[in-house]
């Protein structure tokens, strides 16, 4: 009964997390439609990515006992890939396409984070 309950709660948590990962879709739709990042801050997206990375690490059997936190690792791994590929692609494409080529603090912050996260991912592999 305990393992079944844990699996059911894990699946419900994964469904709720998937909805939270899809929350910025309206913002990205606006960025794509206007072809500009405007004054959107990159900080919430960076913090969400770091949160997903930490929870993915927590769910792995290296940290947890065997695979007891498998649902945590799977949904946050999906969130990691969603945030890295989709978010960074949208922000970078629309940052490069800016007509004024001005670089505000948000854009600089996001590009710097992407550079350092790519460097760190190569260091740990």
Automatic annotation (TrEMBL):
Name residues in a coiled coil.
none
Stated name of the protein:
SWEET sugar transporter
Which species does the entry assign this protein to?
Answer: Salix suchowensis
Report membrane topology: Multi-pass membrane protein
Keyword Transferase recorded: no
- Subcellular location as annotated: Endomembrane system
Keyword check for Membrane, yes or no. Answer: yes
Instruction: Tell me where the transmembrane regions lie.
Output: 6-28, 40-58
Family to which the UniProt record says this protein belongs:
Belongs to the SWEET sugar transporter family.
Identify the keywords attached in UniProt to this record, alphabetized: Membrane, Repeat, Sugar transport, Transmembrane, Transmembrane helix, Transport
Judging by the UniProt lineage, the source's domain of life is Eukaryota
What InterPro entries has UniProt attached to this entry?
SWEET (IPR047664), SWEET_rpt (IPR004316)
């Amino acid at each position: 009964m305990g393992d079944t309950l844990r699996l059911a709660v894990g699946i419900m948590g994964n469904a709720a997390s998937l909805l939270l990962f899809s929350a910025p879709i309206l913002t990205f739709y606006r960025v794509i439609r206007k072809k500009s990042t405007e004054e959107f801050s990159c900080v919430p997206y960076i913090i969400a990515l770091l949160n997903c990375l930490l929870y993915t690490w927590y769910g792995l059997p290296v940290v947890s006992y065997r695979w007891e936190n498998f649902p945590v690792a799977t949904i946050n791994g999906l969130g990691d890939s969603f945030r890295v590929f989709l978010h960074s692609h949208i922000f970078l494409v629309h940052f490069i396409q800016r007509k004024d080529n001005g670089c505000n603090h948000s854009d600089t912050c996001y590009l710097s984070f992407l550079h350092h996260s790519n460097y760190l991912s190569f260091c740990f592999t």
